[in-house]
Design a protein that fits this description.
Blueprint lengths: L1 H68 L1
Length: 70
């Protein structure tokens, strides 16, 4: 009978640790997801800025000769 109580106690402890680890893993997953989203957003913004910078530069190069004509 004492062994059964010991086993139940060990099982309860195992369950507590199991759910604690899962809770911590889920919290970390959410933090990592937010961090990844911020990094991706920053990277996309850099790409868009670079695209606009060179796109506007090309537009200015094309329009410069037209300014002299008009």
């Amino acid at each position: 009978m004492a062994e059964l109580e010991k086993f139940k106690s060990a099982e309860d402890e195992f369950r507590k640790k199991y759910f604690q680890r899962n809770r911590e893993a889920e919290e970390n997953r959410q933090k990592e997801s937010r961090a990844a989203t911020r990094i991706q957003s920053w990277f996309r913004a850099c790409k868009v800025r670079a695209y606009l910078r060179y796109d506007l530069f090309d537009i200015c190069k094309v329009n410069l000769p037209l300014k002299n004509v008009i």
